[in-house]
């Protein structure tokens, strides 16, 4: 990337050198007028040829070869800042900082090592002095004593290690015993729980069997009472029938009556009647007893089923109650966890919002600082570019002064007429910078109705060439005019 300021300075100075080389010959004598400019009559009287600027942008002379103006001088100076250059400079700064930090750390390490070296040297000298004070036998005795002491300590440590290992094995064995006992107790407890459940089932079955037996006993008692009542009623009926029988006995006194036979017959009749009634009552009672036994069996089966269902329902009720209690406790635990999680989430959200606000503020502040730094950097770059332009200008002027001091060169003052051209603000600014940088050079660039004035002078007293040329840009066509040279004070 070429520097336009550099091109501008070198081009302008090269044009001055060409104009100086073309006007070799007799020394010029010019006389300044009221405005401080050299009069053109002096140039014409001393025999210098005239120059004119044509439309193609080149100078023509009758006695010298033509030369052209560098059009890069008319281009505006671009003072933009290259982003790649900024990045490169930033990277260089970071590298320099990193190298400086590494250098500082290395220096600190070196200082620390030097201090350690000094400490070790002092210790070494001290030990050497102590070693010199003792003899080799004393040193050997001290060494043997120290080694024996270390061996004793090592033996004691080994013995302690063996004791600790024995204690560890004992503790591990006791722990294994306790673990086995604990496992046995767990097995016994599980077995007892199983036996308890089995006994509970047996108890339920025995209670059901007891209830069945109680029901049967009650049925038998009712049957016995029924039989007693039946027998009593039959006995009463027989007694009433016996009371109501009226027997008329005719006793024949003439014949002998066999009363025993009659009594036996009556007894046989009564026994047959009682036997028949007994059989009927027994059949009736058996029928009723069978019906009661069948009904009691069905009722007992239903009762047993209902008892079993009640026991199962009680077990299920207990299980459901335990499940409800566990679910309630779990719900409370989950509610507490949900509450804690909500509180933690709110706190985390608040912290995140606060951090976000702080980060936004820091980002805004960093953006402002970055903009301020970029602005300062641009100002510094502009100042640097201006200083570079001034330095290059002074360098070229010094080189020109040195060359002019070695060999005096007459100056040709010419008037150049060309077409009007609009000058940009950047060109005027660069011209002002160039005017400030020249110091002793009296050069002006003013937008004055489309004309620009440059004054070139030559002083014979101090053998220094000062450019003071008048360049008038007007709307007229270029024409050749000769200007006399006079000596300017």
From TrEMBL:
<feature type="region of interest" description="Disordered">
    <location>
        <begin position="436"/>
        <end position="489"/>
    </location>
</feature>
<dbReference type="GO" id="GO:0005615">
    <property type="term" value="C:extracellular space"/>
</dbReference>
<dbReference type="InterPro" id="IPR003054">
    <property type="entry name" value="Keratin_II"/>
</dbReference>
<keyword id="KW-0403">Intermediate filament</keyword>
<feature type="coiled-coil region">
    <location>
        <begin position="349"/>
        <end position="383"/>
    </location>
</feature>
<dbReference type="GO" id="GO:0031424">
    <property type="term" value="P:keratinization"/>
</dbReference>
<dbReference type="GO" id="GO:0045095">
    <property type="term" value="C:keratin filament"/>
</dbReference>
<feature type="domain" description="IF rod">
    <location>
        <begin position="92"/>
        <end position="405"/>
    </location>
</feature>
<dbReference type="Pfam" id="PF00038">
    <property type="entry name" value="Filament"/>
</dbReference>
<keyword id="KW-0175">Coiled coil</keyword>
<dbReference type="GO" id="GO:0045109">
    <property type="term" value="P:intermediate filament organization"/>
</dbReference>
<feature type="compositionally biased region" description="Polar residues">
    <location>
        <begin position="438"/>
        <end position="451"/>
    </location>
</feature>
<dbReference type="InterPro" id="IPR039008">
    <property type="entry name" value="IF_rod_dom"/>
</dbReference>
<dbReference type="GO" id="GO:0030280">
    <property type="term" value="F:structural constituent of skin epidermis"/>
</dbReference>
<protein>
    <submittedName>
        <fullName>Keratin 80</fullName>
    </submittedName>
</protein>
<feature type="coiled-coil region">
    <location>
        <begin position="89"/>
        <end position="116"/>
    </location>
</feature>
């Amino acid at each position: 990337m070429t520097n336009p300021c550099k091109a501008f300075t070198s081009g302008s100075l090269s044009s001055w050198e060409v104009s100086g080389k073309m006007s070799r010959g007799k020394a010029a004598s010019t006389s300044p007028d009221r405005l401080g400019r050299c009069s053109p009559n002096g140039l014409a009287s001393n025999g210098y040829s005239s120059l004119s600027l044509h439309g193609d942008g080149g100078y023509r002379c009758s006695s010298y070869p033509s030369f052209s103006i560098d059009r890069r001088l008319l281009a505006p100076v671009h003072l933009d800042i290259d982003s790649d250059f900024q990045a490169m400079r930033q990277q260089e700064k970071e590298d320099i900082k990193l190298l400086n930090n590494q250098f500082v750390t290395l220096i600190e390490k070196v200082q620390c090592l030097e201090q350690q070296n000094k400490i070790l040297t002092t210790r070494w000298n001290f030990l050497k002095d102590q070693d010199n004070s003792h003899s080799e036998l004393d040193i050997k005795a001290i060494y043997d004593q120290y080694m024996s002491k270390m061996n004793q300590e090592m033996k004691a440590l080994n013995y302690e290690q063996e004791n600790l290992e024995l204690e560890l094995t004992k503790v591990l064995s006791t722990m294994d015993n306790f673990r086995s006992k604990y496992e046995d107790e767990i097995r016994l407890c599980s077995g007892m729980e199983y036996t308890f459940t089995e006994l509970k089932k047996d108890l339920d079955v025995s209670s059901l069997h007891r209830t069945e037996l109680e029901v049967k006993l009650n049925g038998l008692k009712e049957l016995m009472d029924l039989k007693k009542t039946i027998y009593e009623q039959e006995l009463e009926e027989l007694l009433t029938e016996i009371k109501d029988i009226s027997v008329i006995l005719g006793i024949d006194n003439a014949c002998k009556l066999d009363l025993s036979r009659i009594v036996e017959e009556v007894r046989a009749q009564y026994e047959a009647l009682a036997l028949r009634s007994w059989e009927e009552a027994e059949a009736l009672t058996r029928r009723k007893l069978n019906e009661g036994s069948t009904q009691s069996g069905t009722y007992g089966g239903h009762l047993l089923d209902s008892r079993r269902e009640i026991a199962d329902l009680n077990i299920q009720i207990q299980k459901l109650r335990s499940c409800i209690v566990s679910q309630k406790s779990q719900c409370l635990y989950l509610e507490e966890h949900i509450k804690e999680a909500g509180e933690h989430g709110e706190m985390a959200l608040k912290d995140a919002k606060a951090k976000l606000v702080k980060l936004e503020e820091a980002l805004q502040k960093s953006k402002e600082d970055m903009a301020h730094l970029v602005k300062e950097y641009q100002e510094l770059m502009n100042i640097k570019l201006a200083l570079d332009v001034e330095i290059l200008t002074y360098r070229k002027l010094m080189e020109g002064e040195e060359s002019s001091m070695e060999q005096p060169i007459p100056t040709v003052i010419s008037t150049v007429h060309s077409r009007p051209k609009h000058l940009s603000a950047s060109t005027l600014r660069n011209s002002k910078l160039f005017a400030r940088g020249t110091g002793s050079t009296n050069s002006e660039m003013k937008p004055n109705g489309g004309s620009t004035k440059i004054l070139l002078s030559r002083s014979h007293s101090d053998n220094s060439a000062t450019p003071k040329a008048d360049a008038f840009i007007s709307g007229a066509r270029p024409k050749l005019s000769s200007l006399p040279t006079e000596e300017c004070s």
